[in-house]
Amino acid sequence: MIDAGISFFYQVINALGFHHPFHPTQVHFPVGLIFGAFVLGAAGRLRRRPLLSQAALYCMVIALVWMIPTAVSGFMDWRHFYGGAVLFAFKMKFLLAGVLTALLVAGAVIGFRRGPESGALLIIYGLCLMTTAGLGFFGGELVYSGKTSSAATENRQVKDYQAGRKLFAANCGGCHANGGNSINPDFPVKGSAKTQDFDSFLSWIRNPEPPMPAYPERALSDAQAAEMYRYVANFLNRS
Length: 239
What we know:
By secondary structure, the protein is mainly α. The protein contains nine helices and no strands.
């Protein structure tokens, strides 16, 4: 039921022209607020400006509230693009997200009990910032690991195989950035025997082995699958 709802959500936003993971649209809010809290908190402490310290506390509280849609969107991307595979990068992101939430809760409690100028808050702001940096690092590992395509090949990709590129990014890019395989690097899409002809490719995406999700015709038509195969066979396999 949950996965069906998630799949429907991505079908809707894909139909609206959005073919990327949804989590990045949410994650920048708490990241920016946490950075703002650190800067404002440090400035308030150094300049003895209570209003700056208070603004820092408010930034942290809003960041805590925004952790809800950020976590939900991250879970949705994880289920939709990665099939719920528990990779090391995901383990670290789950752990660090829990640590960050705990720090934000602790900071909110301290701030409202001891006041926004409490020295302990500046330490929490710093720890939150470092934890956020760790989350960004492991998020980057998932998205960019092994991605080496140059600007020239990207331009060719957009020009010649735009439809297939968008379909691949929307349905496969999470686990198979640049034709690789973040779940099992020994079995990339690029050069796979399953991409040597369209019938094999179509059979593969319709009935894959777990944890890869299946793509029935209601989710990806034969015509769309053909466009995606054209991109894989003529660009990824030759890049």
